[in-house]
């Protein structure tokens, strides 16, 4: 029911399964009624296996499966008609088929080569031309039907999900920065600091998954009739730059959280920075969060906002650095905490500054129109 009510991965998976089932039935009936196949197996199996998440993968799977079947059946026919089926003829041909199956370009369908060799040799001795011909034709027909079904019945177009994930990622980082800033002002303990550290670690782990979704979205637009009809143009490179920058910056935020865990843990015997330092540091974190809230958005005003926020945060950190260097610390043993917090925050700012010009953030305000195309970039 969730797949019916809400658009997302569950609905995509349900639609893909429905299309695979439909393609299988169509291919089966085609093999029975048109090809007059006495054992209609290869067409529906090919159709079932080539319906994939994107048209590129669907076309690739179809080609791989057809090549695997053709090579396998051809090898079996050649051996069967020239040498016959003997243990000594089976050994080299199966070994060769297994080697071909490992060819990277055949992917998961490489197993079709030794499978078809074995099937043909053991059932008809590899010499039945009609069996060989019909098997190849069924496989080709099934692959075509599978690809056609995937293209005609709502061809898979994965644009919205990576956009939502990117927005969710940046919002989550902003919330974490604001939470840490509020805790530094109002007081925090070991439990809160560990929660910040755990949350930061989870965000770091999300970045590769989102990058995969971006790549799937980019791939889903190739050879896709829905994309050609809608005329979508998405800045996938900008999306990837955004996630990369946020992910790299998150390593620094994780370091900040780890330092606060140590400072709050009585067993670590790590003195806590002064209240003045932490309040100013909290202001810098809020400024960084403000910069991320405008990160990758279109327009000179948005770019200026990022620059201003990050610049203000950098000024605060520079001032704190001078104070730490030029004034006597209340507890000289606390200098590692000061240094760690300052360095991680400054590195976080640099990561964002370096990527700010190339990053692109999806928005909910709709696509930007350009002549002849609809751009869903920023």
TrEMBL record:
Tell me where it resides. Membrane
Per the UniProt record, which residue ranges are transmembrane? 12-31, 75-101, 113-134, 140-159
Domain called Integral membrane bound transporter: residue spans: 27-148
Q: What is its main location?
A: membrane
Q: How does the protein's chain sit in the membrane according to the entry?
A: Multi-pass membrane protein
Q: Which UniProt keywords apply?
A: Membrane, Transmembrane, Transmembrane helix
Q: Which domain of life is it from?
A: Bacteria
Q: Does the keyword DNA-binding apply?
A: no
UniProt key word Calcium = no
Full protein name: Aromatic acid exporter family protein
The source organism is Pedococcus aerophilus
């Amino acid at each position: 029911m969730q797949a019916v009510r809400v658009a997302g991965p569950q609905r995509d998976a349900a639609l893909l399964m429905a299309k695979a089932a439909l393609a299988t039935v169509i291919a089966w009936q085609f093999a029975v009624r048109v090809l007059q196949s006495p054992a209609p197996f290869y067409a529906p199996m090919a159709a079932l296996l080539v319906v994939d998440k994107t048209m590129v993968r669907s076309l690739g799977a179809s080609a791989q499966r057809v090549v695997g079947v053709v090579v396998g059946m051809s090898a079996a026919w050649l051996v069967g008609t020239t040498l016959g089926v003997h243990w000594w003829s089976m050994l080299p041909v199966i070994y060769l088929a297994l080697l071909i199956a490992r060819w990277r370009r055949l992917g998961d369908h490489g197993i079709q080569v030794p499978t078809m060799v074995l099937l043909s040799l053991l059932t008809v001795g590899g010499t039945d031309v009609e069996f060989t011909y019909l098997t190849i034709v069924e496989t080709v027909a099934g692959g075509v039907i599978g690809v056609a079904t995937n293209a005609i019945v709502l061809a898979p177009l994965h644009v919205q999900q990576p956009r939502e994930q990117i927005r969710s990622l940046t919002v989550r980082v902003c919330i974490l920065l604001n939470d840490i800033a509020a805790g530094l002002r109002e007081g925090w303990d070991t439990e809160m600091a560990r929660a910040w550290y755990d949350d930061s670690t989870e965000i770091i782990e999300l970045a590769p998954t989102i990058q995969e979704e971006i790549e799937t979205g980019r791939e889903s637009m190739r050879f896709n009739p829905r994309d050609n009809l809608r005329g979508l143009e998405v800045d996938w490179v900008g999306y990837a730059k955004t996630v990369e920058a946020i992910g790299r910056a998150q390593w620094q935020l994780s370091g900040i959280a780890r330092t606060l865990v140590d400072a709050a843990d009585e067993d670590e015997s790590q003195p806590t920075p002064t209240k003045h330092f932490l309040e100013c540091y909290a202001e810098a974190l809020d400024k960084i969060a403000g910069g991320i809230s405008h990160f990758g958005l279109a327009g000179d005003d948005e770019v200026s906002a990022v620059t201003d926020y990050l610049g203000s945060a950098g000024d605060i950190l520079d001032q704190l650095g001078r104070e730490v260097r030029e004034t006597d610390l209340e507890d000289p043993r606390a200098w590692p905490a000061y240094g760690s917090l300052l360095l991680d925050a400054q590195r976080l700012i640099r990561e964002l500054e370096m990527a700010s010009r190339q990053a692109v953030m999806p928005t909910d305000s709709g696509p930007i129109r350009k002549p002849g195309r609809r751009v869903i970039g920023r």
